[in-house]
Automatic annotation (TrEMBL):
Region entry Disordered, spans: 172-215
PANTHER family: LEUCINE-RICH MELANOCYTE DIFFERENTIATION-ASSOCIATED PROTEIN, LEUCINE-RICH REPEAT-CONTAINING PROTEIN 72-LIKE
Pfam families listed in its UniProt record: LRR_8 (PF13855)
Chain intervals with Basic residues compositional bias: 185-199
InterPro entries: Leu-rich_rpt, LRMDA, LRR_dom_sf
Gene3D superfamilies reported in the protein's UniProt record: Ribonuclease Inhibitor (3.80.10.10)
Protein name per UniProt: Leucine-rich repeat-containing protein C10orf11 homolog
Length: 215
């Protein structure tokens, strides 16, 4: 499909090629509702580079998203995002990510299928590009690898078996539950059932204590 112009977004060029959509350089802070309505279910690859996006909750409307490019945006360590079961590629180069642990906790929880991650030129990703030392860069890789056990490529460099072994040795306690939302859901359901049971028992006791009608 060739280039199309969205009538509701006159200054934006929307390029859709089968299942890939590009809205790069569009001065966006969110994904436009009309784009979601028209392409939401069919988008597999989305390029939103060079925008002003900081909140990723719009991904809830893209149930089949596989690849997301967010280079040069305003994503922070505290970014909000939903569960994206099939997302395998995420680029967040040149953003505002400062707390690596906090960011990885969010990614690990919501992107269980992630295979490729690139987050160069963020404060949380030390390298030659932002004044980090070689040792800082190496430790950063180990930390990320230990947090995302399915990762195959980090910052354009393949994750090696040696790195995986070393990451597990250095950070043995960083175990990741691949289905955290399922466990959480089970706990909530159990808690809800328990609450209903307690409420029902309390109502029964109250009913027994209430005087009969007409007395």
């Amino acid at each position: 499909m060739g280039a199309q112009e969205n009538p509701n977004l006159p200054s934006m060029e929307v390029r859709v090629c089968t299942t890939r959509l590009s809205l790069a350089y569009s001065d966006l802070t969110d994904l436009p509702p009309d784009v979601i309505a028209k392409h939401g279910n069919s988008i597999l690859e989305l390029d939103l580079s060079h925008n002003k996006i900081s909140d990723l909750r719009f991904l809830m409307e893209l149930p089949n998203i596989r690849s997301l490019v967010l280079d040069h945006n305003s994503v922070t360590s505290q970014v909000k995002m939903p569960l994206c079961r099939d997302l395998h590629t995420l680029w967040v180069n040149h953003n505002r990510i400062q707390n690596l642990g906090f960011f990885l906790q969010t990614i690990a929880k919501n992107c269980p299928s992630l295979r490729i991650l690139s987050m160069m030129n963020n404060e949380a990703a030390p390298s030659y590009f932002n004044g980090g030392t070689y040792q800082q860069y190496v430790d950063y890789r180990y930390f990320v690898i230990s947090s995302l056990p399915n990762l195959e490529v980090l910052d354009y460099s393949p994750v090696t078996d040696a790195e995986t072994r070393e990451a597990k040795r250095i950070y043995p306690s960083r175990m990741f539950d691949p289905e955290p939302e399922a466990n959480l859901r089970r706990k909530l359901i159990k808690k809800k059932k328990k609450g209903k049971k307690q409420k029902s028992t309390a109502e029964d006791e109250e009913e027994l204590q209430m005087p009969a009608t007409g007395i």
